[in-house]
Specification:
alpha+beta; four-stranded antiparallel sheet; 1 helix; globular
Length: 92
């Protein structure tokens, strides 16, 4: 399970949450509310130096900007790799 939020940063609260189901290898992804959650919705993850962009099947993009110390950011990136695998991850 992995995720990130801006809970400590601003009054406009946003988050992403994701995790791989070990039984069927599907990946659950949710942003901002359970109504925006589904299985295998992410088609591509673009990792940049200071941000990560999740591209969804419905063509929405969810941008997460780094707002944390390097150890926490590295943990977030590791969670992305663990959940999504190398097939859909692109580094720029």
């Amino acid at each position: 399970m992995g995720g990130a939020s801006n809970a400590a940063g601003t009054k406009d609260y946003h988050y992403v949450l994701f995790g791989r189901d070990p039984e069927d290898n599907s990946v659950y992804f949710e942003f901002d509310d359970q109504i925006h959650g589904s299985v295998d919705a992410v088609t591509r993850v673009v990792i940049a130096e200071e941000s990560v962009e999740f591209e969804l099947k419905d063509h929405q993009t969810i941008l997460v900007r780094r707002g944390m110390a390097q150890p926490q950011w590295n943990g977030f990136l590791q969670g992305i790799h663990d959940a999504f695998g190398a097939d859909i991850i692109q580094k720029v």
